[in-house]
Amino acid sequence: MIALSLRMNGQTVTINRPWVMSIVNVTPDSFSDGGRYFDAQKALSRALTMIDDGADMIDIGGESSRPGAPSVPENEELKRVLWLTETLAQRGIPVSVDTVKPQVMRAVMDAGAAMINDINALRAPGALETVAAGDAAVCLMHMKGEPRTMQQAPHYENVVEEVFAFLEERIAAGVAAGIAKERMVLDPGFGFGKTVEHNLALMHALPQLRGFGLPLLVGWSRKSTLGALTHRAVTERLPASLAAALAAIALGATIIRVHDVRETVDALTIWRAMIPETA
Ligand code: 7PM
Q1: Measured between alpha carbons, how far is 141 from 163 in angstroms, rounded to an integer?
Q2: SS3 breakdown of the chain: % helix, strand, coil, rounded to 5?
Q3: Is residue 202 within 8 Å of residue 190, measured between CB atoms?
């Protein structure tokens, strides 16, 4: 693959092979068994297992972006993500935090987060300034509408043009606020206000998205488009998720966001051994 670089916390890292970002949700519905202390320890041990399995980065989320999910107050979201961010960062593990809230962004950057993963692309008031004042990398993701209602009949004249124009505008807004392009990662936001057809059109356009010259992050893991194409329930979507991850890499994605780290790392290892020029 063509190497790209990314600046995170003052260090420019060269990305010369696909990175696996692994999902750790610290929301109440992602734990079935009780108290906060136990939850935190469980999340930590999950994250450490994922690093053992070959994850390059851990993406911590404290607010579900599931359609219809209640929004989480700032202090509650912070309570969920801050300790884990700090604990992993102290061990030298690159941490990304999935949040749209400036106060959460500031606190996790102070705790050592390497990336802010914002499904809202820094559109919240104060988000641009907050990221500009820190030095974490930032993922700018496209979303049409808001999580609660985004899957209710999303419509585009031309989904590819619209997503490109959106990302171009968010890059410009970031640069104007003082965020260096070298800190940015782009994401078309599969499933965020998009039908199956929209998602596939965007997937086919990934090679063009590389034209921005920035690393691309993609998340296909277990998503409903994979369910629609395979007629599989969410718990049965691992094969589809692996195929989607490899396809995204072959089309130019740099970072893939996944639930199933071991399986994805194995699939990538074989892909890279066999078709090295595509990954
Ligand atoms: C419901 C809807 C539950 C969507 C969970 C999700 C992405 C992300 C998510 C992505 C980036 C999921 C998503 N997806 N961040 N956060 N890119 N950058 O399926 O595709 O994990 S949450």
Answers
A1: 9
A2: 45, 15, 35
A3: yes
d(CA 236, CA 244): 14
pLDDT digits (tens, 9 = 90+) for 84-140: 999 999 999 999 999 999 999 999 999 999 999 999 999 999 999 999 999 999 999
C-alpha distances out from residue 23 to 43, 51, 230, Å? 11, 11, 23
Residues 235, 273: Cα–Cα separation, whole Å:
29
Q: Residue 112: left if φ>0, alpha if ψ -120 to 50, beta else—which one?
A: left
Structural domains of the chain ordered from first start:
4-278 (3.20.20.20)
Q: Whose C-alpha lies nearest to ligand 1, atom 3?
A: 66
Q: Please report the atom of ligand 1 found closest to the CA of residue 220.
A: 20
Q: Are 261 and 50 in contact (CB under 8 A)?
A: yes
- Provide the 10 A C-beta neighbour count for residue 130: 20
The ligand 1 site (C-beta within 6 Å) comprises 23, 65-66, 98, 117, 119, 139, 141, 187, 189-191, 217, 219, 223, 257
Provide the whole-model pTM.
Answer: 0.96
The residue assigned the tokens 């749209």 is 100
